[in-house]
Amino acid sequence: MQPHTKAFVEGSTLRLGRRSHELHSHCKGKSKQKVVVLGAGAFGTAMAYAACQGGNDVVMYMRDAKQCAAINSEHRNPKYLSEFSLHVDGVSDIRGICTLEELKEELHTPGVVIIHALPCQLTPPWFRENKDIIPKDALICVTSKGLYLPTQQLMGHAILDALNRAEQPLAFLSGPSFAVEIMKGDPTTLVVASDELFQAVRMQRIMSNFRTLRVFTSDDPVGVQLGGALKNPLAVGAGMISGMGCGTNTLSAFVTRASDELRQLCIAMGGNPRTIDGLAGMGDLMLTCFSAQSRNQRCGQRLINGEKVEDIQKNTTVEGIATADVAILYADMCGLELPIFRCVHALIHKRISPKQALVDLMGRPNRHEIVQ
To answer: Which of 79, 112, 259, 275 has the fewest Cβ atoms within 10 angstroms?
Structure first.
């Protein structure tokens, strides 16, 4: 190595080492925040672990007493991601609680933050039933990616209605994030959005650990929620493409054009189209469309191979099935054509054949790619 090259490399290494030390010190120097995670499924477990890595005091609420006892004694979740230890060196261990009395006590810690990781369709009923123990000033960070189907609402609106409060602080965490990869420590980036940007910054500080999880902020909760929810039916469509035997050309075209439709819907519903270009849009869309880890993607493959929706959903919830109906409702309300959303919806309900879907999409009139 030449002397000047060696000096450059050594200098760069020194700077990187100093920067790593500064970031680690910053993370350690943050004030400890009480974080209560609602739900101890796979993603709730990953969120609790990530918040603990950020140096916070983390409690996980679940109804299963045996699961709770195992988390407290063995520092593992026996039902989800059991191969991973929940112990984080230098930080208080994640604690499990399983009664509403314990939850009420934890939630009345001043400045508590709630990370919501319950299934979408159970969320508004749970908040409605338990609203009296939710402090009015507690920040609720929503991690579920879906719509509330009975009222066709974005999750934030459904939660506020359930609480019967217009001023409850809300944030929405989204982006490409399989729970198992967060637990493995694979570098992951997310985005958190809130109408009150300081609340998004607050969640950013809680969740970022400067090693494996990096969180960006946004002031577009509508776009972040739409991206997270409406990528689900599109992932079902991606699974259908794979099930039909089409290759990467077709899937890449599908994802690109589908993102344009998602962008149109975001604009029509008051969101920022740039959000769809980011982690909550294209990032999450690519994750779910290209990976067989996605329940929605696997569902699409199974539908194309002849399985019925009812059979697929016997043992697991596939958000993309019902969300496809709401996507078409939104499209009609906004006067949007959205041919890909409509084809996926028709295929899910077996109103057209896969062959006809390809004819309908590929036979559309020629046009300019980017329409302002």
So the answer is: 79
Spell out the residues 6+ positions from residue 326 whose beta carbon is closer than 8 angstroms to its own: 147, 149, 152
Identify the bridge partners of residue 173 per DSSP, sorted by sequence position: 192
Single-letter amino acid code for the residue at 91: V
Please tell me the distance from the alpha carbon of residue 89 to that of residue 80, in angstroms, as a whole number: 21
pLDDT in tens, 86-100: 999 888 899 999 999
Set 231, 308, 350, 355: catalytic member: 231
Task: Measure the CA–CA gap between 346 and 356, rounded to whole angstroms.
Answer: 10
pTM of the model: 0.90
CA–CA dist 269, 264 (Å, integer): 9
Query: Are the CB atoms for 47 and 117 separated by under 8 Å?
Result: yes
Task: Give residue-wise pLDDT tens across range 177-236.
Answer: 999 999 999 999 999 999 999 999 999 999 999 999 999 999 999 999 999 999 999 999
Query: CA-to-CA distance for 147 and 67, rounded, in angstroms?
Result: 28
3-state SS, residue 140: strand
CA distance 58 to 45: 11
Residue spans of beta strands (DSSP E) within 233-369 = none
Read off the tokens for 173. 């965490």
Task: Say which residue the tokens 């350690």 belong to.
Answer: 28
- Known active-site residue 6: no
Collapsed DSSP state (helix, strand, coil) of residue 174: strand
CA distances, 315 to each of 221, 290, 310 (Å): 31, 23, 10
What is the identity of the amino acid at 217?
A: T
pLDDT digits (tens, 9 = 90+) for 286-317: 999 999 999 999 999 999 999 999 999 888 88
The DSSP string of 309-322 is: HHHHTSSS--HHHH
Residue that has been written with the tokens 């969300």 in this structure: 323
